[in-house]
Amino acid sequence: EIGVTGYKAYYATPSGTQSHVYLYDYNTGESLARMDCNFHLNTTRTGAASGVATRYLARSDARIVGQIGAGHHGASQLAAVCAVRPIKRAQVYARTREKLVAFCEQMSAQLAIEVVAAESAEAAVRGADVVNLITKSATPVLLGEWLAPGQHINAAGSNALMRRELDVE
């Protein structure tokens, strides 16, 4: 629609990561920009991908989000889903209770919805219409047996071979 296309490239090494966004003219293929993907751009873009997925794939009557992960990317994930669905409640789980409580308070104020700290990952997922996963876990944090028909999952944290948020089921 605006005549531009692009992508994000992400490269990780033992000493750190680098990421860039590349933009091209949609009609000619001419390179328009190569931008360092700073913190804000990176978290916003990651959240936006889940927002787009939710908009087109989740049930239109989705009202409850279950989320595992309460870090910086967790905020953009939750905000993006709330931007495309009339979310009333979010059930969030994170390993560090103090960080989780602070996240819930911040996001509740920011989004003007009820954001509650779930006692477990399973409790966060049960009863949710949309499930966001945004962790760095090497082992599954979501078990298929917790899911119900019709739930939409945004699994955004597994971006490396050593990460795995979902079990086989």
How would you characterize this protein structure?
It is a single chain. The chain has 169 residues and is of the alpha/beta class. The protein contains 4 helices and 8 strands; from the N terminus they run βββαβαβαβαββ. The strands form 2 sheets. The chain has a 5-stranded parallel sheet with strand order 6-5-4-7-8. A hairpin with a 5-residue loop joins strand 2 (16-25) and strand 3. Helix 1 runs parallel beside helix 2. The protein is globular. The model has no long low-confidence stretch (mean pLDDT 93).
Concise summary:
The chain has 169 residues and is of the alpha/beta class. It is built from 4 helices and 8 strands.
Using only C-alpha atoms, the radius of gyration works out to 17 Å
Oligomer: single chain
Q: Which percent range describes the beta-strand content? A: 25-35%
Q: Give the end-to-end Cα distance, rounded to a whole number of Å.
A: 39 Å
User: Which stretches of 5+ consecutive residues score pLDDT under 50?
Assistant: none
Number of strands: 8
- What fraction, in percent, of the residue positions are helical? 25-40%
Mean pLDDT: 93
Q: Give the biggest sheet.
A: 5 strands, parallel
Q: What is the N-to-C order of secondary-structure elements (H for helix, E for strand)?
A: EEEHEHEHEHEE
